[in-house]
Design goal:
6-stranded mixed sheet, alpha+beta, about 575 residues, Nucleotidyltransferase, domain 5, Substrate Binding Domain Of DNAk, Chain A, domain 1, Actin, Chain A, domain 4
Length: about 575
């Protein structure tokens, strides 16, 4: 039996294992790199090159990874089912190639994958009959493949520019064998496919063809021609290839100057993400950058990396095999329990609970190392309240409605008791695979509810980079929103208390407090928060001289005038 490392890629997938101590990509159908394509025109799914060359766009699914965790269908199948077909094909062919069964596997995922997306990958593996040892981030696996774990220390970037996704991570290697991801970011709608489309559109215009009038199968043929031109573009200053449409031959061309022009915006987007991640990591200088993903084969990409990072670029390994090779090496270390490799990944987006007023109590912050367990304690807001509803969200904005909704669940069966007496603990646990478990329990009674985030909970495919960029752009505005939410929560809590003790105040102060309380309520209702701040300060000033006596009177049951007698 063998243990595998699997890179389930957007446009291509690879399966590897360790042979004689060396991570090696396994040949599947004569190739180590398998297109992540599935065709459903026959009784059994066609996977890989057979699907890609079927030229049947209506029954062929491409780049399904971009839809991981989404509630959509392709040819009547969910992304989990399509991914399972790819994984089963890799497993079956690898077993035939090696002449032995596969015991288990480490599978890689993009660093920016959410909890639901990671869960969906594990489900796909289960459907394919694969036991998952661990999910690890693709950049982390790549760093292992390049042997960075053998170095004593250093801070490295991992630039992963694949066919359909882009990731950038900053990792710290320490002398005690710890391999820690300091920060990570990415875009699951940015990759080599975008450059292929740009090359195709450029050549269609060059040939006088209208892209809107080209059929899907003709576009597919054109993209393959564009991909071929891109791959051979480094061989000479200008390359060309024939494109056939309706029996007529057209000549597609690509020069180094044109590929630089067409890729400029895409490369800038990758560098913007890298800049943000480096800033998040808090480091000043990288000791090197690992280049992985098919796009890093291109000279224009490597040149851009050298200009921006000004350090050593690690590119000695096949960039399309590197992630799978690293996963295989890590799988081997897990099985042998060598203890020579410890990976610490991070939570890609902040996780929290929606609070009163639509705000968020952030429980696990973005870029927190995993595994991690964090707890918060809450209580009931009403007398005899027997249940509490929790809304789990993910994102960087201060309002729950502006973040991704992960799940909602209710803790019921809390015994009736006065408001504030119940002690409800909410525990967030992110495991080594990045999967989130949420547990809520009442401390006095032991009533408990536990959930695991469901991939069908409807997380959007909104780009990770868009989330972070929006949070950065709205930082000042969000700070104000957060202040207003806290002001509203605190004011409404205090209004209830102030109204309950109005009769404890002397007549003049009582009348002033009644007026200011009414003003505060009206300001909050109209969302005039600047006025609300002033009214709240006025109330605090009215109650302040009598505060100790009010508390003492409530505890003793005597009036303020009786205190001290």
């Amino acid at each position: 039996m063998f243990i595998a490392g699997i890179d389930l890629g957007t446009t291509a997938s690879v399966i590897s294992c360790v042979k004689d101590g060396v991570p090696t990509a396994i040949s599947v159908g004569g190739h180590t790199v398998t297109p992540s394509a599935v065709n459903y025109s026959e009784e059994r799914p066609l996977v890989g090159r057979k699907a890609l060359y079927k030229f049947d766009s209506d029954r062929t699914v491409l780049s399904v990874k971009r839809f991981t965790g989404a509630n959509v269908k392709f040819c009547g199948r969910s992304p989990v089912e399509v991914s399972a077909d790819i994984l089963f094909y890799l497993k079956k062919n690898a077993e035939e190639s090696l002449g032995m069964p596969m015991k288990s596997a480490v599978i890689t995922v993009p660093a920016h994958f959410s909890d639901s997306q990671r869960t969906a990958v594990k489900q796909a593996a289960s459907v394919a009959g694969i036991k998952v040892l661990r999910l690890i981030n693709e950049p982390t696996a790549a760093a292992v493949a390049f042997g960075l774990d053998k170095r004593k220390e250093g801070i490295f970037g991992v630039y992963d520019f694949g066919g359909g996704t882009f990731d950038f991570s900053v990792l710290r290697l320490t002398g005690n064998g710890i391999f820690q991801v300091l920060a990570t970011g990415g875009d699951n709608r940015l990759g080599g496919d975008d450059l292929d489309d740009a090359i195709l559109e450029y050549n269609l215009r060059l040939c006088g063809l209208d892209a809107d009038c080209i059929g899907e199968n003709e576009k597919k043929n054109g993209r393959m021609t564009a991909k071929f031109l891109k791959e051979i573009s480094g061989s000479s200053p200008e390359v060309q290839a024939d494109y056939f449409r309706r029996g007529k031959k057209y000549e597609f061309k690509l020069s180094r100057a044109i590929i630089e022009e067409l890729s400029r915006n895409l490369l800038q987007r990758t560098m913007n993400i890298a800049e943000q991640v480096i800033s998040d990591s808090g480091v000043e200088k990288l000791n090197g950058v690992v280049a992985i993903g098919g796009m890093t084969r291109l000279k224009v990409v490597k040149d851009a990396m050298r200009r921006r990072f000004n350090c050593r670029i690690f590119d000695e390994i096949n960039p399309e095999e590197a992630v799978s090779l690293g996963a295989a090496a890590y799988a081997d270390s897990l099985i042998k329990k060598s203890g020579n490799l410890l990976l610490i990944d991070v939570v890609p987006l902040t996780l929290g609970i929606e609070t009163f007023g639509g705000g968020i109590d952030k429980i696990i912050y973005r870029n927190t190392p995993i595994p991690i367990v964090e707890k918060r304690e809450y209580t009931t807001g009403k007398d005899n309240q027997t249940g509490m509803t929790f809304h789990v969200v993910q994102g960087e904005r201060p309002l729950a409605e502006e973040c991704r909704s992960l799940a909602k669940f209710e803790l019921s069966g809390i015994p009736p008791m006065p408001a504030g007496r119940a002690r409800v603990v909410v525990e967030f646990s992110a495991d080594v695979n990045g999967l989130l478990n949420v547990r809520a329990f009442e401390k006095r009674t032991g009533v408990e509810q536990t959930i695991t985030v469901d991939p069908s909970s409807g997380l959007s495919r909104e780009e990770m980079t868009s989330i972070l960029q929006k949070a950065s752009e709205k930082l000042s505005e969000d700070s104000l929103v957060k202040r207003n939410i806290n002001l509203k929560i605190e004011s409404e809590r205090m209004i209830g208390f102030w109204e309950a003790v109005l009769d404890k105040l002397p007549p003049v102060e009582r009348k002033n407090a009644e007026t200011e309380t009414a003003n505060l309520k009206e300001a909050l209702k109209k969302e005039n928060y600047e006025d609300a701040i002033n009214y709240k300060k006025n109330l605090e000033a009215i109650f302040s001289p009598f505060w100790d006596d009010i508390i003492s009177s409530r505890l003793s049951g005597r009036s303020i005038g009786e205190i001290g007698q």
